[in-house]
Predict the structure.
Amino acid sequence: MERGELRGVVALDGPSGTGKSTVARRLATQLGARYLDTGAMYRAATVAVLRAGVDPTDADRVRDTVARADLRVTTDPQAQATTLDGEDVSAEIRGQEVTTAVSPVSAVKEVRAQLVAQQRSIIATALAEAGGIVVEGRDIGTTVAPDAGLKVYLTASAQARAERRTRQDTAAGRQATVDATLADVRRRDNYDSTRAVSPAMAAEDAVELDTTHLDLPGVLAELLAMVEDRGLRAVPTGSSREH
């Protein structure tokens, strides 16, 4: 991938269902930047735990299992894939079993330390090779990339997030109801915001963006304006930008 228009790191944080993944990929694609889905890494770690028959709440066994796993993600926003020990698990990580177990797995401090170190390495490589990267998750602005040039915390009402996730799951062929998804959204919100290590929260210098009543083009437009305002967009040599 050639160097794109983004210069630096855009950190997108927020709970499930706020549109982080979709808009992060779109933003990275439009700016010719790399893209990192940190949540996919924690989900792949959870697949490793479940395949090993380990109780997700057994912190010691979870730590040891994830330490042995080879977790990798691609950073091309148009060809994002997640692998575990060489196997593509991009579809499996979105299943309900993984969704239910990912919070306790991601709460293990050694797991977070391992994956944060890997995430920082991925970011460094992306900056050197492409000039910029859009990173999304729950602790990017506070822990993974505290020096990001732009930090945005996406929010939305629990009901709106549940409805979005239900539509996504249904479209992907997974069984889901709004009521069940809403209960899961609230459970994960509570778990992730109260965990001892890197709780999900907005960085002090993050811009909060409520997406409850915004569609995808609307969120993307807001983010592009923020990138421009921060001076993080550069036009590649030999090209011109439409105004």
